[in-house]
Design a protein that fits this description.
Strand order of the largest sheet: 2-1-5-4-3
Order of helices and strands: HHEEHHEEEHHEHEEHEEHHEE
Number of helices: 10
CATH superfamily of the largest domain: Histidine kinase-like ATPase, C-terminal domain
Number of domains: 3
């Protein structure tokens, strides 16, 4: 046996030994060691969890069917140069991985094994796509009112310069478009502030029932204007751990949406919005229910997406920015809470916001903050 072959066999035996196995298993990301023929030598627990069909001694292609990865392994085995490849998995959920393939050489660039590490890019790609969509949507939302403002300014400076009636009409529209842009910018800034504090869990104690009573009183004039009756059940204190201003935003967005979009489809029937605050297990919950047209099932999973609207025309006509429920979701996530939405077409919608309760009164120190 030649000296080169002996070294090759020695290295191969070492790679199959307990030392290499412990090293591979200590890696946090999925890692697979294959020989020059792409047969599996070792695999750590994350790799076996990701690829259940992975078996020691069998060809990697039987568990990882990715032509780009297979071709890259073949090139690394032949040329002893590290490579990267992308592998996408579509079932049971869509995921994207970066596969790094590093050669382990014996002598004269002869590859005896290759180490594959798989890095999950799914979340990074999702965030990148969401950021691009967000910029495009925000630009679109601002472009429309801005174009209207510029058009009216040019008209007032030109053909309608001396027309008092047209001037009053255009100025009223310009004011409304300006307020629409201001609302949108306010919501964008609010969302940005919440995201910056997403990792900081609130620690104050807030009586959510008192917050909701305050919000309901504030929105009562809007409800009367739109012919909506508010039914409020929030008499008993419900003390939660949270930030008062943000919980006010949650209540405002949910109740205002119900008032604006929850009108009963039959104009002869009085529209009602039912609001309740109560304790359920370890959570304080705000339930806002309307008896309007409801939401089709296909829209429910996307209601909390930024700028997503079931009916864009109706939303803009009612001065909606498309960010209200996204703000609610982010606030509740920061509070370690959740938002549940139930709806059927023709049967209204129910929004339930849950936030962890504060500790029982006898175990708390200090006073309740409202």
């Amino acid at each position: 046996m030649s000296e080169a072959n002996a070294r090759r066999r020695t290295l191969t035996a070492q790679l199959r030994g307990p030392g290499a196995e412990k090293l591979i298993e200590a890696m946090p990301e999925p890692a697979i060691l294959v020989d020059a023929e792409a047969r599996v030598m070792l695999a750590n627990p994350p790799a076996r969890a990701l690829l259940p069909a992975l078996k020691i001694g069998e060809a990697l292609v039987l568990a990882l069917r990715a032509p780009d990865v297979t071709d890259a392994i073949r090139r690394v085995a032949a040329g002893a140069q590290a490579e990267q490849a992308l592998w996408s998995e579509r079932v049971p959920i869509e995921r994207l991985f970066q596969v790094d393939i590093a050669p382990l050489a014996a002598e004269a660039d002869e590859v005896v094994a290759m180490l594959l590490t798989l890095r999950d890019l799914t979340e990074a790609r999702r965030v990148e796509r969401m950021r691009a969509d967000f910029i495009a949507n925000a630009s679109h939302e601002l472009r429309t009112p801005l174009a209207s403002l510029l058009g009216f300014v040019e008209t007032l400076q030109g053909p309608a310069q001396g027309d008092a009636k047209a001037r009053d009409k255009f100025l009223a529209i310009m004011g409304e478009q300006g307020r629409r842009m201001a609302r949108l910018i306010d919501d964008l800034l609010s969302l940005s502030r919440i995201e910056q504090k997403q990792h900081l869990r609130p620690a104050a104690e807030v009586d959510w029932a008192q917050v909701v009573r305050h919000v309901a009183d504030t929105l009562a004039p809007l409800a009367r204007e739109l012919g909506v009756e508010l039914k409020l059940d929030a008499e008993r204190p419900v003390v939660v751990v949270g930030e008062r201003d943000e919980l006010v935003q949650v209540a405002e967005n949910l109740i205002e949406n119900a008032i604006k979009y929850g009108a009963h489809p039959d104009p002869a029937v009085t529209s009602k919005v039912e609001i309740a605050v109560a304790s359920r297990g370890k959570d304080g919950v705000l339930v806002v229910a309307d008896h309007g047209r409801g939401v089709a099932p296909e829209h429910l999973p996307r209601l909390t997406e930024r700028f997503y609207r079931v009916d864009p025309g109706q939303s803009r006509a009612k001065n909606g920015t498309g960010l209200g429920l996204a703000i609610v979701k982010h606030i509740l996530t920061r509070h370690r809470g959740r938002l549940a939405i139930e709806s059927r077409l023709g049967a209204g919608a129910t929004f339930t916001a849950s936030v962890p309760l504060a500790k029982p009164q006898e175990k708390r120190t200090g006073t309740t903050k409202t």
